[in-house]
Design goal:
single chain; mainly alpha
């Protein structure tokens, strides 16, 4: 899997969204929400 570098600010947002859970899982949830919110017709 490729490495993705993010800003400190974004990393803190991901940590906050994870709320102590797995960071990868939190990131995938954020991606899913973004796609649902930005895909016309869904």
């Amino acid at each position: 899997m490729p490495t993705i570098d993010v800003s400190e600010h974004l990393y803190r947002q991901i940590e906050s969204a994870a709320d102590g859970d797995d960071l990868d899982a939190a990131m995938w949830k954020m991606v899913g929400r973004y796609q649902r919110g930005n895909t016309p017709g869904d």
